[in-house]
Target: Amylo-alpha-1,6-glucosidase
Amino acid sequence: MRKLVRILDGNIFALSEDNGDMDFSPTNPAGFFAFDTRFLSTWRLRLDGERLHPLAVHDPSYYKIRFFLVPGHPTHYVDAKVSMIRDRWISDSAFVEHLTVLNHTNGPVDYVLRIDVDSDFAPVYDVIWPHASALRGYREVSTDGLRLGYRREKFHRVTDISTSEPAEFDEHGLTFRIRVDRQGRWNTTLRVRALVLRPDGADMRERLRHPRGKVGTELRHDLSEWIAEAPRLYCDWESLCTTYRRGLADLAGLRFSPLALPHETMLAAGLPWSATIIGRDNLLTCYQTLPFVPRMAATTLRLLAMDQGTVLDDFRDEEPGKILNEFRYGEMAAFEQRPQSPYYGGADVTPLFVVLLDEYERWTGDASLVRDLEDAARAALNWIDEYGDLRGDGYLWYQPRNDASGAQNHCWKDSPEAICYRDGRLPGLPRATCELQGYAYDAKRRGARLAREFWGDPAYADRLERQAEELKRRFNRDFWIDGGEYFALALGPDGDQVDALASNMGHLLWSGIVDDSRAAAVAGHLLGPRLFSGWGVRTLATGQASYNPLGYHVGTVWPFDNSLIACGLRHYGFVEEAGKIAESVIEASQHFAGRMPEAFAGYDRELTRYPVPYPAANSPQASATGATFLLLRSLLGLEPYGEHLVVHPALPARFGRIELLNIPGRWGRKDAIGNARAGRPVAHSGDR
Model:
């Protein structure tokens, strides 16, 4: 299988081989996707019956790409008498392709250009877990276009194909019979529209008054404006600048307008398999990027509040006050074959909602949003105590209500084998992972601030603060493993310690729940040889029975995970350790063209000498992209205090000088400048 290349605009994207063809198979998830559906599964180009091969691929922006092609096999390249340029972009929510045929001979030549077209209208879930997919639906041929459609009761999806030059359309594609003059060229533009139709035949987006997607010139202007509004970064270490620029572009590419808030933008969680609303990823990415691109946080908070749980629904794991974790538009969700319509199977999302709301106000001073979302925030805090505390012991637990098609683990490590004992056994349910307790602690403290300063309820604030302190006291008693000097990954259903050594405890530093007397031991484990690979902190330590350097949550390195860990280390004064993580993860990104991947393998750096890709990683992925920004915040020690931005840099020598200019916030725009200091950075344990 050739390497897949991609273009995207939010939750609309195309995956193809490096010659531009889309040939789906169980091992090749190519296609054109929108609204959690594959609208094209075959898009295959031939010139005079021959497939084309790439000479070069140029991708100047997230939404467009250019392929330089010749027919035949590589041995023919030198003598090619004809070549093609295949320009492709996303525009106005459509997939557009401009074809140019170049005749390199001294006489006119006739060519037959054929494009094979098909669609299986597969839900994304059928592509994530690949299996043989049957082509289905209906086909309508006209003189000026081809329509592929699929209808199941009220669920109706359509792919419309048209072209600017005359073509012969049939049920399986279109054919051009062309003549190109000597040393001449011929071109055409093809447009593929993905339609979500209502029973009356109207596009669902029109009914909802959803704005049409941007066209090419608007996308270019929008990207330029997006980058211009963000802070400008200068650094002696060019790798940081490369990753920062790539991160800004990737965030721009992941933006989309949700149907419920059609004139605002938020982030799709990742390409290709998470190009939708994922509550956890949206909240974390907004937190990571608040000092840089704060405007998406308000949209995210409003949207999640609109869909906050109100009833007990076992199928969707919904409970009153709970924040959704995933929303899908595809067929399987529409017909309740899967619960993502929406799905609430994440115990961490609800406290993170309160964390982001408070952090957003601290940076922006937007008190009106805090007041507007008071009921949602109170309901979220109430959910932690009423529904999250399954055992009545003050801890945040999870046990799926939907044990047929829901997720087993309701934390960020949601794969089935992720929460395990040191010997590889899996605990029963319910489970209380350690980072959930940190999130709950942080949410209660932040909720107390909001209640006291904005909701006019000091009694409620006092109660939340007492609950938070009691939770911290009990947590440091019940989760601490004395023999190992680290925090257990979780508590099992009997209250026993799930004793695997994992990266989750780094999130405890971020939330502030760790007693100061135990922070040094936690930092030592995180930077020790079992967890630290040399490229970042592994999700699971070596020596654990389930450890696998290519295991999704049991040995890989996740940049988002590391960014929270580095932020937590910085909060507790471990500035050298935070800098080491930041340096290693940013260096690793250079092996991925400056892009932070969702995850990469956890092999020791000395063994592989370079970070090994994780084969099924989303790329770009929102919270991985956000890691660069939170790492930069940690390096510069950026913290909002009232109407002021405090800057307290602590940089490893490799970074040299960093200048971050025009940082937005309640203070207007401010600059932050830091210089690496010789010797060991000075630790300040009172930073938090």
